[in-house]
Amino acid sequence: MANLLSYRIGHPAKPQLALERVKALGIPAVEINLGPEEDAKAVRALLARAGLRAATLTAPCPLADPKLFDIFENYCAKAAALGCSGLFTSVHSGDMPLPQVVERLRGLGDIAARHGVKIGMETHPDLCENGSKGAATMAAVAHPAIGINYDTANVYYYNHGINTVEEVAKEARHVVSVHLKDTMGGYHDGNFPDFGKGVVDFAGVFGVLNGVGFSGPFTMELEGAWTTSPDPAEQEAHVRACVEHLRGLGLVP
């Protein structure tokens, strides 16, 4: 099966790159943000008119919030209505004891499973900042609808002396979605260049994940000053460079 390429565009009404430009680059799917009151079916129709579909939906995850399960009931329903495979979220345990964290994550997994979607936890502290930590969290939670959203660059940002291919291999069987991002490789280095200009071995990451049966979504999460450029052509040039790098490696159609 061909790998599914996606692009994190933000809100579809005000995307990082215009929807028609995304489609013109041959990117079939997107990751999107929506507010809690927004109509997922209307957004699905908006994307369809541009020839796109939502692969994943971003959801907030305030673990200590008494309304946490209501929040996820809403966002999981939206993800299902959009036709997404899952949700992307960032989870921080903070001062919450691990047994309580696990209990709440399992509750979220039950909600996601009822809606036929999965939850991907981002490569962020303090539960999933590297492969070992993510694998340990997944072992503790042990829920089929809770997995990892592996970020190819964040693992460098939050750790010293690691390699992204080695890290993804530690938790590969738990990966349900991916953020593709390049980096110069430094700890807390926020320079995320166009693909191929940093240290990320994209072919190696794809190889590990394809080896365990994962074929996407592989979502480009692109950051940098150019993302706020008033020149759409400049923005498109950076996105195109990243897509072409992946295609040049034979990783995506």
Give a verbal description of the structure.
- The protein has helices at 19-24, 40-49, 68-82, 98-114, 131-141, 154-157, 164-171, 202-211, 232-248; strands at 5-10, 29-32, 53-58, 86-89, 118-122, 146-151, 175-180, 218-220.
- The protein has a single domain, classed as TIM Barrel, CATH 3.20.20.150.
- Helix 5 (131-141) runs parallel beside helix 7 (164-171).
- The termini are close together.
- It has an eight-stranded parallel barrel, surrounded by four helices.
- It is built from nine helices and eight strands.
- The chain is α/β, with parallel strands linked by helices and 253 residues long.
- Strand 7 (175-180), helix 8 and strand 8 form a beta-alpha-beta unit.
- The longest helix is centred in the middle third of the chain and has 17 residues, at 98-114.
Strand content: 15-25%
Measured between the Cα atoms of the first and last residue, the distance is 11 Å
SSE-based structural type = alpha/beta
Q: What do we call the CATH homologous superfamily? A: Divalent-metal-dependent TIM barrel enzymes
Strand order within the widest sheet? 1-2-3-4-5-6-7-8
How many helix segments? 9
Count of individual domains: 1
